[in-house]
Amino acid sequence: MNDAAATLARSGPTSANIADWIRTQIRSSRLVPGQRLVEVDIIRQTGGSRFKVREAFQRLAAEGLVEIEEFRGASVRGASEDEVRQLYQARALLEGMCARDFTVRAGAEDRKKLARLALEMEECVDSNSPEKFSRLNSEWHKLLMRGAGNAVIEDLVKRLSTPVHHLLFGTFYKGDRLREAVEDHRLIMDAIEAGDPEAAEAAMRVHVEHGHRFLSKLERAVHND
Amino acid sequence: MNDAAATLARSGPTSANIADWIRTQIRSSRLVPGQRLVEVDIIRQTGGSRFKVREAFQRLAAEGLVEIEEFRGASVRGASEDEVRQLYQARALLEGMCARDFTVRAGAEDRKKLARLALEMEECVDSNSPEKFSRLNSEWHKLLMRGAGNAVIEDLVKRLSTPVHHLLFGTFYKGDRLREAVEDHRLIMDAIEAGDPEAAEAAMRVHVEHGHRFLSKLERAVHND
DNA sequence: AATGACAATATTGTTGACGATATTGTTAAA
DNA sequence: TTTAACAATATCGTCAACAATATTGTCATT
């Protein structure tokens, strides 16, 4: 039994576990922006103590995911359209840099793994399995950043991504978007394999910008319900 | 009396105040990497309650500024050479983008303010006042990002900067570095005033990279003591 | 029925006490 | 003198009770 499991067994989830749980709820839009996070509810659903729940709130507040008001507790913070734009611009720059670095610096194993992930994702389009695609996609982006030797950037991008991913879950991934993403990935992989860092960076920027556009369209569609 | 002051008066500093205080201590290297942050000490020095101090720790941990180990509490987290490299690369990209956006989007007042700040900083070189220079410099960078309409990026860059600024304080700012920075700023201002966003972005990247080199030199010098 | 004052409840903020763990100091044996 | 075992202290993690505030419900008045 590892440490985490041991801790879990003797005294319920840790504050980090609870924070993760909340993050997941937000990403899957079981918790929507503006919604209040009542301590007792979280306690019931996670089994954590009140103290740990509050610690989790603090961490999430520092990440900008929730907002804490005096005597009103924590609530899910939504991002405005302009904030989303800035976040995606930042991502485009940072991931673009990673694509460039990966082209130059990555080891042989990471290159192979990245190619294999891309292939698996292509298969997901045919078999129409958006959840698997979503998971592989996260893996792919993470591997690209870490393989480029930029773990700090990876962490940063993760933080940037959380507050806007509440729409990109499960059934929302339609066939068109999947095909577009696969096409983008192929361009990036080609550039990497050709050893062309400039092209890899440019292609990655385009890819992230595509994601932004797709999200904007989605939000407009939801808004016009 | 504003809200913050009122709160302060009736019940001591808030957890955000304490977090700020700790951040300042770290930046001014009164707290150095590896050093443990003993709760009682912080309580004595800030007047906050233990609960609030711990909340502050959680926030700082989420920002990556301190590390929390079980039963050993919080300690200041130092950045490795490679982490510093990644942080500066991210800054170069993000601030470069802001310089570009400022050139295109900034209002007339912000442009004027930015130019005035740059002038004041030039005077600081002659009068040899590094603390004032440092303050104005922060102002200048902040204004550039906010004037570009990228407040989220500004916040992000602030977080990126904190863990590495412990050396760039007070007397470390030598005349050479000041002159170099002023020269960089002048190039950036020229590009902005000429309405050349590409040049502004490029000049800003160079400027940040200069800052990185300077810091590296400093660390090597300190290390060889 | 609509509105405002007031009470009841729900929720959060704060404090203090207690147990758990790490760190330091002490002593005795090799 | 050095080291290992043990005790003492310092520090941290957790919890439960209480205080402060917000929210909701009720009732009388218009």
TrEMBL record, chains A, B:
<dbReference type="InterPro" id="IPR036388">
    <property type="entry name" value="WH-like_DNA-bd_sf"/>
</dbReference>
<dbReference type="InterPro" id="IPR011711">
    <property type="entry name" value="GntR_C"/>
</dbReference>
<keyword id="KW-0238">DNA-binding</keyword>
<dbReference type="GO" id="GO:0003677">
    <property type="term" value="F:DNA binding"/>
</dbReference>
<keyword id="KW-0804">Transcription</keyword>
<dbReference type="Pfam" id="PF07729">
    <property type="entry name" value="FCD"/>
</dbReference>
<dbReference type="Pfam" id="PF00392">
    <property type="entry name" value="GntR"/>
</dbReference>
<dbReference type="InterPro" id="IPR000524">
    <property type="entry name" value="Tscrpt_reg_HTH_GntR"/>
</dbReference>
<dbReference type="InterPro" id="IPR008920">
    <property type="entry name" value="TF_FadR/GntR_C"/>
</dbReference>
<dbReference type="GO" id="GO:0003700">
    <property type="term" value="F:DNA-binding transcription factor activity"/>
</dbReference>
<feature type="domain" description="HTH gntR-type">
    <location>
        <begin position="12"/>
        <end position="79"/>
    </location>
</feature>
<keyword id="KW-0805">Transcription regulation</keyword>
<dbReference type="InterPro" id="IPR036390">
    <property type="entry name" value="WH_DNA-bd_sf"/>
</dbReference>
<protein>
    <submittedName>
        <fullName>FCD domain-containing protein</fullName>
    </submittedName>
</protein>
